[in-house]
Amino acid sequence: MKLPGETRQIRLFLSLVLIIAGALLIWQGARLKSVPPSTQLQDGRGRLNINVATREQLLEVDIFYPQLVDSALSRRQKRGYFRKEDDLLQIYGVDNESLPVVLQYVFY
After folding, report:
1. Measured between alpha carbons, how far is 43 from 37 in angstroms, rounded to an integer?
2. Average per-residue pLDDT in the chain?
3. Residue 26 sits in the same domain as residue 53
4. Cα separation of 58 and 74, whole Å?
5. What is the DSSP string of 38-103?
6. 25 conformational bin, left if phi > 0, alpha if psi -120 to 50, beta if neither
7. Which of 10, 15, 50, 77 could bridge across to 106 with cysteines, CB 3.0–4.6 Å?
8. pLDDT greater than 90 at residue 93
9. Residue 80 is part of which domain span?
């Protein structure tokens, strides 16, 4: 027969385990956000990795103007690395029409 004190200790222990598990899941999600999908600066087609390129490197691309580059870097800093096309659409100046052109010059 379990005593009331033992039941309280078991509940407290299980609550602590759940809190730790939740914290680990949150930490892992934040960690994934901080690790770029690729650390390579250029791919085999000569495109720049938008997740690791500097402002100066992005400005060397003919179609990129300062406001677009600053928007991309701001979005990367605030929300983490680009992982899909929808992420690129969050850049000021990039829309569904211009996205295929942008993808000719950058990858993620």
Report:
1. 13
2. 87
3. no
4. 13
5. ---SB-TTS-EETTT--HHHHHTSTT--HHHHHHHHHHHHHH----SHHHHTTSTT--TTTHHHHT
6. alpha
7. 50
8. yes
9. 48-107
Asked whether residue 42 is domain-assigned, the answer is: no
Q: Quick one: pLDDT at residue 105?
A: 97
Specify the residue for token string 């983490």: 80
C-alpha 100/C-alpha 94 separation (Å) is 10
CATH number at residue 71: 1.10.150
- Model confidence over 46-85: pLDDT tens digits? 999 999 999 999 999 999 999 999 999 999 999 999 999 9
In the chain, the number of structural domains is 2
Phi, psi (rounded to 5 degrees) for 66 = -55, -40
Q: The whole model's pTM is what?
A: 0.65
2 with 52, same domain: the answer is: no
